[in-house]
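Why Lipoprotein? Reviewers of the renewal asked for a concrete example.
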Amino acid sequence: MGFVVALTVLGALTGCQNLGVQPWERDLLAKPVMTPGAADGLDDALDDHIYFSKEASSGGRGFGGGGCGCN
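Here is what the prediction returned.
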């Protein structure tokens, strides 16, 4: 019984030995264009337009409110 418990604990510990992601394993996410906030102004304006169109409201990112457009 003790052997099974020891083997289970040992197996669990060896499964956690490599938790980091290496740069070459990131593939497309390692590209500079994938950095949050790296988009140019046109991309930000388009994202805002899509967000407000879906929410049926204008402005209001800084305060709470529903998508009813009544702000």
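The chain has a mean pLDDT of 72. This is the kind of structural detail the renewal will allow us to pursue systematically.
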